[in-house]
Amino acid sequence: MSGPPIELLLLKQVAGYLAMPVFLVDEDGALEYYNEPAEELLGQRYEETGQIPLETWAKIWAPTDLDGRQLAPDELPVAVAVRERRPVLGIISIRRPDGSDRQLTITALPFEAADGSHLGAFAIFWESDGQTAFS
Amino acid sequence: MKATFWGTRGSLPSPRPGTTRYGGNTSCVEVRTGDGSVMLLDAGSGIHRLADFGASTGRVDVLLTHLHMDHILGLGFFGALFQPDLEVHIWGPPSTTLDLRARLSRYLSPPLFPVRLTDLPCKLVLHDAPRGTFDLPSASVTADLVCHPGPTLGYRLEADGATLTYIPDHEPALGDQAFLAAPEWTSGFSLMTGVDLLIHDAQYTDEEYPAHVGWGHSTISQTMALAEAAGVGTLAPFHHDPSHNDVLLDRLFSVALEEQDWSFEFSPAREGTTLTLGRHPALRGS
Amino acid sequence: MSAKAVELILLRQLLSRLPLPATLVDAGGNIVYSNPASERLLGIDYEAKGEVPLSRVPEMLDPRHSDGSPMELRHLPLSMALHDRRPQQYPMIIHDRSGAPHRIVTTAVPLDGQGGTLLGAMNFFWEEEDEEQEPVLP
After folding, report:
1. What does DSSP assign to residue B59?
2. Is the domain defined by A6-127 classed in CATH 3.40.50.1220?
3. Which tens digit of pLDDT belongs to each residue from A108-118?
4. How many angstroms separate the CA atoms of B176 and B174, rounded?
5. Staple partner for A128: which of A103, B277, C88, C126, CB 3.0–4.6 Å?
6. Which residue, among A9, A11, A41, A45, would best test binding to B if mutated, counting the most B CBs under 10 Å from its CB?
């Protein structure tokens, strides 16, 4: 069967239906896709970014940790998930193209196909309200 | 209730000498109830063939399944939109972040189209179609999301004692390792169960499908199996592939019919034909 | 017969292929799907059980907080995602069919469709391998 892996097709299709922000990178960390709710939160439509390398897309949103330290692309949760092929949780701040800041709670998960092939990683994330974790 | 096919082709208008019987216009089905009410299912290029669009009732409803170009291509040229005394209600799926008006405006605005929604002379009302049942003046409509890239609805209409389900773009088998093993886990199934007439995507052959997985469409054989499992009265395969000419479609449908004894009537959608639905199962085609 | 929402259908098809344990709950609070990876971890054949109400999870998995204290149903991350409609990330302990404990981390998210319709909730969970593999960033 030619074409993209079925898992990628399913993820994109269901992400297109959900109100939950979803962000997908390929096995090199390059931006593969993000859905409309992610566009709202990130402040930029996917069509305006396209499939760009990790080093490029990481700069768009200037991510920092909670202490304000600039994060290197390979420190981002989704980059770690791709590289180390394990789930990663994180909270980061981003600066949207309009200059406003957002704090995001992220779960990044390695994305693997049923045949074991490594497809990359996807992140589900939401705006932190300081109460997302159980306390 | 009468269903007239004004556009039966999927993806791309494909008018040419070899497609005159099944037609080259893209998706558009006119549904007319006994009291003269008019509903349109999608607004592909076939919409331009409508001559009477509800002038007698003062209202026409357009139910859009989704906003892929082949299903809205004709909307800007729909004569009803330019009738000042006519109410035109357009129903369609919102996305999770944008309403129908915002999404439709991406097409019906410059540079893609010279006329904006706000410029249209008719009394235009846009509706984010709810998931569930809602009433039109002469029909009850049930809408639900189905499996297709981007927000896509299927519609079930009930009127004049008959039922019709329209799912022109649908890939219920996507990623399903046991298609139809569990009907409650089959996209669109509850919309089509026991319906008098099912108009359903049947774009590909089994040989073509592997190269088109994820494109959002069904094979003829998948659609036949779906119709059988759902216990429909009549199946109208729809959304014919633009590369399939009349001769090929005749052969494909003939082969599909011979696969087994099917419990439903079989009436492939052909442009310009009308199917009349009534209280009795028999379908009167013209 | 009412079919499942297409979002749940697509998720079920996706989750069935992922090696990461995952569970789907519908808006009514029933576990409608638990993928093979989840079944392997827990030793529970959800496919055979059919739909299971979330209220049965405490008796099935004996969920506990990281300190070992019992976790009430309403504090289950999936429960909170469903009822409070807020995502949850949480380390916890669950017990498999043989009673063996598993320290896991779970992310549970509400599944909201168009128009704010609540479709259910979903969680991914994985076993903690070691302390150093806790969240990368605070």
Report:
1. E
2. no
3. 999 999 888 99
4. 5
5. A103
6. A9
